[in-house]
Design brief:
Helices cover 37% and strands 26% of the residues. The chain is α+β, with helices and mostly antiparallel strands. The chain folds into 3 domains: 92 residues, Winged helix-like DNA-binding domain superfamily/Winged helix DNA-binding domain (Arc Repressor Mutant, subunit A); 55 residues, Dna Ligase, domain 1, CATH 3.30.1490; 78 residues, SH3 type barrels. Strands 7-12-8-9-10-11 form a 6-stranded antiparallel beta sheet. A 3-stranded antiparallel beta sheet has the order 1-3-2. α1 runs antiparallel to α2. The structure holds zinc ion (ZN) (3 copies).
Length: 231
Amino acid sequence: MKANHRQEKRQFERLFEKEGIDKVEDRMAILEVFLGVEQHMSFQELATLLENKGLDFEPDFVKKTLNLLCRYGFASKRKFEGQPTLYEHRYLGSHHDHLICTKCKKIVEFENPQMETLQLEIASFHGFHVLQHKMEMYGLCSDCLRERVSLTPLSYAREGESGVIEDFTGGSAAQLRLATMGLRRGDEVEVITNKGEGQLVVAVNATRLAMGRGVAAKIMVKPNGRRKDLQ
Ligand SMILES: [Zn+2]
Ligand SMILES: [Zn+2]
Ligand SMILES: [Zn+2]
């Protein structure tokens, strides 16, 4: 355990005893597990971790302890869009911001002094005194981006090429239409006819389907590199 973790545990112990909070020893065990994982974690993830370590606490007790950790400045609560509430270790006197991948939910932390200064400058220009701020950027992480680049719309695939359907773009109406056509993620699709304009004919699950280019453009395929000889 890092030196500052030991120090924090002592602070926590002293503070809780002073505040008359009960079951300090159990709460210490939770703190120790929490500090042992330097990442953003949900209540559920912490509960699973405790369970795996053979620490059997009531969920309510774990939840209350997490809230105490937040109240006394040992943890911070984060609420990112599309994710459960996450908790992270709070380092006194330091600050960081987040990049959040909307696909795989990965969270990247960053610190940028110029960005911090610029934000204060902007605020003061507007006569604003900043008490706190959150900078969250949402998008695709480098891994997800790499995966996406390798995808191609079905309308671009050439005759004889085949691949696996990975994703559908377009709104829910378009997705519904594709589902009605019997197309699902993970299906293998082969292009029978694609003249570069007009309809495409494809084979999916041993069925031939004719579809417009607009529809085909919404189907994202990972080419499998196989190309059947045309007959
Ligand atoms: Zn910041
Ligand atoms: Zn990602
Ligand atoms: Zn963080």
